[in-house]
Amino acid sequence: MVPFYGVVILSCVMSMVTLAVVVGKNTILDKGSIRWFRITFILVMAGAVCEFLGVLFNNIGRIPSWLFVSVTLLEYILSPFLTIFLAKSCGVKVSLKPVIILMVFHGAIEIAMAPFGFIFSVNSEGHFERGAYYWIYIVFCAISFLFILFVFVHLGRKVKAKNYMTLVMISLTFLSGQLASILWEHIYSGYLSICFTAILLYIFTQDILRCQLIEIIDQEKEKSAHDSLTGVANRSLYERKTGVINSNIQADAQAMHFAICECDLNNLKIINDTYGHESGDFYIKSCCKVICNFFKHSPVFRTGGDEFVIILQNEDYERYDEIKRDINEFVLAQVRKKSSILEKISFAAGFSKFNSKTDKTLGDVLNRADFEMYIHKRSIKAETL
Predict the structure, then answer these.
(1) Fewer CB within 10 Å: N-end or C-end of the chain?
(2) Contact 223/289 with Cβ under 8 angstroms?
(3) Is 129 strand, coil or helix?
(4) 327 and 376 Cβ atoms separated by less than 8 Å
(5) CA count, 13 A, side-chain hemisphere, 207
(6) What pLDDT does residue 163 have?
(7) Are residues 120 and 131 in contact, defined by beta-carbon separation less than 8 angstroms?
């Protein structure tokens, strides 16, 4: 048992040493987590060495009792205490003072009872024996178990549902190894499970932070792709969309079915000059809201100060003629409305469908829509005269 167990512990110790060295390299952990993980790895390594020495001394016998007791005492103190370091490493922000006080109290009890052999002792033949009050160690280990479960629940609140199973497996890894070593005296799996748990939590914590970072990046990309005033897609996103559509046209023009609507707001300069830019911004948002209501199934892009482009797709593409008629009727009604220029929603709109036989790019479709939009704008001006 000892040679094989020695290889296992040596593997665990080398793993902890390696992680303690590289924990600060190529990682997205903050400095605090790096420091706590490094301390955890070092202490786990020390505890594993103590556990192995205790097993080795027990098999050899005739080891000075003070040395045997000291090594086992350090192992017993460290084992339940390590959950605190694991919690700090994982970024648990709740107060750990009650748990720290309990574990310090446990350490004091272990030290005070060690000379009397109440919790454990080394007999005259140099072998380890559990004492009458060994249950005290079990109680504090149980508290440690409960605390690590709390840590897992706390982490579970920060992760998505798909990560819960990972947390469950890590907790079972920890608990199975600890329970086995406590219930069966000759199974030495305590620090083995702690090593595995430390490694898995290190990987898990980085994975969670990486996922959170990706979400933040995606959110920032989403914000940067949308107009800050109206909330619709901006010119940058329109240009990316144009590139995708042009690639699809080159790949299979026959499969492409879309149309373009270009809208240009009327009277914006007059409103800005007369009522101020705040009123102008309100006017832009009001017009944008109306445009979005007409195109509920298509992306709307603000490509300039008073310009909007809509790529008709899905149901909007099928309702092309109906939407075109409804917009013309709406704009005409707004022009004829007896109210101030600020209260009228006025914009010119031009439409054009993609023709797979003649159009090579989205720009070809846009040019026709742009031409029709200026015709519509002239008719609106004529209506106001």
Answers:
(1) C
(2) no
(3) strand
(4) no
(5) 14
(6) 65
(7) yes
Query: Which amino acid makes up residue 45?
Result: M
d(CA 66, CA 68): 6
The count of residues in the chain is 385
Burial (Cβ within 10 Å: 0-12, 13-18, ≥19) of residue 151:
buried
Per-residue DSSP letters for 294-341?
H-TTS-EEE-SSSEEEEEE-HHHHHTHHHHHHHHHHHHHHHHHSSS-G
| HEC profile of 8-44 | HHHHHHHHHHHHHHHCCCCCCCCHHHHHHHHHHHHHH
192-197 own/partner pairs: CB under 8 Å, 24+ apart: 192/8, 192/9, 192/12, 192/48, 194/44, 194/47, 194/48, 194/79, 194/82, 195/12, 195/15, 195/16, 195/44, 195/48, 197/86, 197/148, 197/170, 197/173
Contact predicate 230/285, CB 8 Å:
yes
> Could you give the angle at which helices 190-224 and 164-183 cross, rounded to 10 degrees?
170
Distance CA 15, CA 198 (A): 10
Which residue, among 211, 232, 257, 255, has the nearest Cα to 309 in the 3D structure? 232
CA distance 223 to 385: 42
Largest Cα–Cα distance of the chain, in whole Å?
Answer: 115
Tens place of pLDDT per residue across the chain (385 aa): 567 777 888 888 888 888 888 887 767 777 878 888 888 889 888 888 888 888 888 888 788 888 989 998 998 898 888 888 888 887 777 778 888 899 999 999 999 999 998 998 888 888 888 889 988 988 888 888 788 777 777 766 666 555 667 767 777 777 777 777 777 767 777 777 888 878 887 777 777 777 767 777 777 676 677 888 998 999 988 999 999 999 999 999 999 999 999 999 999 999 999 999 999 999 999 999 999 999 999 999 999 889 999 999 989 999 999 999 999 999 999 988 888 888 889 999 999 999 999 999 999 999 999 999 999 999 988 876 5
**Nearest residue to 375 via CA among 354, 357, 352, 356:** 352
